């Protein structure tokens, strides 16, 4: 069929028609110019076979041209298209078969996995049943041991109560030991620890001290030989002891002598009170255990303190503080510092004052870090 098609002759005849023009062809044949253009350009898929034969016959009759090869070329193209369609259909059938095969394999695998899961569940149920049985047995053993522990605890508490009662009775049965001379003891304590002017009243005369000591010595229930000798010597020479004690403290602690130099003592106490508010130590007193974090901005060091309810922090550099809660009181240089009630509390010491800061300001001061 392909050997009978003379494409050169067909192209030559179509060129003649193209030279005439679409408008003239449409005017003469009364055909649509679009259909004539499809014939001239060999657009076989745009025109069906029946109409194509009619258009070709009209053009051959009007212009005396041979367009038989045009029909043959269209028929050959249709046959080739049919063959390609068959190939496409066969390929689609093969793809569908392979897809079904894959689906069947997937179904088989799913069934196999479900079967394995069912077996695994059965095994787990079996293990759980065995564990429950063992747990019931262990509970019975634990209950028996718990009763034993309770009995042992009761026995232990009874023994502790008995020994406590016995110790209490022994303490009550021991006669009180007569106290030694308070004058010598007071003098020794003053020489060792130093007199701080808290436990004595400067308004009372000095003569009452030895008299009181003498009365206490005479009121002892069980006098001892050594004690009586010390008491007698102290009763005979109270003025000497008092004089020596005063001279000792005048030489060692002149600022603490309330009896002979009351005015300097008051001056020193005022100086101490003036020094204390400017000690630059932050005192924290919390109502409950408080977590405290301290950041030294100049050295870059960071410290976290254990849970306590009181702290004393020396303020040497610019510092940041973080408190776990707000139930606490701050005291700096003798003045109470106010703080926020949010949790946690963040504060900043700029070298002279302690102020409350928010989260954003805290991060800015800490170089963008939360801690």
UniProtKB/TrEMBL annotation:
Taxonomic superkingdom: Bacteria
Keyword Hydrolase found: yes
Extent of Low complexity compositional bias: 239-250
The entry's keywords: Coiled coil, Glycosidase, Hydrolase, Membrane, Transmembrane, Transmembrane helix
Coiled coil: 91-129
Feature: compositional bias, Polar residues: 209-238, 251-272
Its EC number(s): 3.2.1.18
Spans through the membrane: 147-165
Enzyme category, top tier: hydrolase
Record has Oxidoreductase as a keyword: no
Region (Disordered): 177-277
Gene Ontology molecular function terms on file: exo-alpha-sialidase activity
Protein's name according to its UniProt entry: Sialidase A
Organism, scientific name: Helicobacter cinaedi
